[in-house]
Structure to design on (103 residues):
């Protein structure tokens, strides 16, 4: 986990580990977003974010996601991403609630 956090920090971003108790809500959230992929209940879900919400910060978040995915692959971890409709205020608020209200 340290290597993944470090990878995000390099791009001036952060990651949060979604608690297992939030997986049912995340499944519902993902289904509403039109994704059909089901999440492996034995896996972990990380959320990549930035402190600001502007074009530069969104670019940093994307770069951080790429760096985290590459770091996971280098560490022999299976990883994929799910885009969560970041342009919708309600999606952001719901995701913020799922990660425990942080940021």
């Amino acid at each position: 986990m340290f290597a993944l956090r470090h990878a995000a920090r390099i791009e001036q971003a952060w990651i949060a580990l979604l608690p297992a108790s939030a997986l049912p809500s995340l499944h519902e959230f993902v289904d509403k977003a039109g994704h059909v992929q089901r999440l492996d209940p034995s896996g972990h879900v990380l959320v990549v974010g930035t402190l600001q919400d502007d074009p530069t910060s969104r670019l940093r978040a994307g770069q951080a996601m790429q760096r985290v995915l590459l770091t996971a692959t280098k560490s022999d971890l299976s990883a994929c991403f799910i885009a969560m409709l970041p342009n919708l205020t309600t999606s952001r608020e719901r995701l913020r609630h799922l990660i425990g209200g942080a940021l």
In short: The chain has a mean pLDDT of 79. The radius of gyration is 13 Å. Strands lie at 14-18, 45-49. The first helix runs from residue 2 to 10.
